[in-house]
Amino acid sequence: MSVAVTVRPTVDGDEAEILRMIVALATFEREPDAVKATEESLRALMFGDDPKVFAHIAEADGRAVGLALWFLNFSTWTGRHGLYLEDLFVDPEARRMGVARTLFAALAQEAARRGCARIDWAVLDWNKPAMDFYRALGAARSSGWQPWRLDGAALDRLADG
Fold this sequence. Notes:
Helix 1 (about 15-30) packs across helix 2 (about 40-45). It is globular and about 55 Å long. Helix 3 (about 100-115) links the parallel strand 4 (about 80-90) and strand 5 (about 120). By secondary structure, the chain is α+β, with helices and mostly antiparallel strands. The chain has five helices and five strands. The chain has helices spanning about 15-30, 40-45, 100-115, 130-135, 150-160; strands at about 5-10, 55-60, 65-75, 80-90, 120. The protein has a five-stranded mixed sheet with strand order 1-2-3-4-5. It has one domain (about 5-160): Gcn5-related N-acetyltransferase (GNAT) (Aminopeptidase, 3-Layer(aba) Sandwich), CATH 3.40.630.
């Protein structure tokens, strides 16, 4: 039996479903206690006066089953924005139904609409099924670059001078 999957930009009122899928993704990524986001913080960042974070929700049978949460980045080399995919999640029972591919197609359309040069994202080094999926889309692993992060106490120390 085939189920139609539709994708739409998120709207104010989707915060509970967005947070549910963020928590489910964190659990899948073996970090269930790492989520500090709340419905209120998501509402402010995504649907406030000057949103900087965006998302698309995939629905099947009227129920949210997937999430692509993203923001704009910038390439000085291309002189254009890019779209950075922060989180991609599909409910386990909805996997292998084309949800992730449909979300990626919506992101590609969004990137084209905004004149973005590319879509970037990161994948955990142990998530081989995701890597296989990305390759099937035509994506390629970036090489030569390592992800780095400054956060927590080190960020606070630097900010304090």
